[in-house]
Task: structure prediction
Amino acid sequence: MKILIVNGPNLNLLGVREPGVYGSTSMDDYLEALCADYRDIEIEYFQSNHEGEIIDRLHEVGFDREYKGIALNAGAYTHTSLAIADAIRAIELPVVEVHISNVHSREEIRHRSLIAPACKGVIAGFGLDSYRLAIEAIKELKKTRPD
Ligand code: DQA
Result:
């Protein structure tokens, strides 16, 4: 089983970016530990600062039945991108929205997600462990379509 983790803008700077909000662990270090914990799952990782590249990646894997789902932290695009919401609706694979911080305890503009209604569910506020919880959620998802 494969699961794709997609990170959006500025998440390449995890570990150095606002450590008080996002922690001081880099995504590389976190992924190494995550992959070690889930040896039975092929965890793939993609990061881009560009909206169109995120959409392209969703399209590329979105119909591939080798994948069980996608954990997507769209960063600030969460709050602005109708195009990413449309891409999530356009593909077959379930997408779980992920946030490291609890967006609901932050500025009001972060309370609104344009992508949440298109996603299977939302996990926010557990630090980098939000990604692990998203993997757990994806693992538990029942098939919604026949092979
Ligand atoms: C974030 C929350 C967003 O509001 C912010 O723009 C990010 C990171 C999070 O993981 O907590 O870039 O998605």
Remarks:
- The two ends are 14 Å apart (CA to CA).
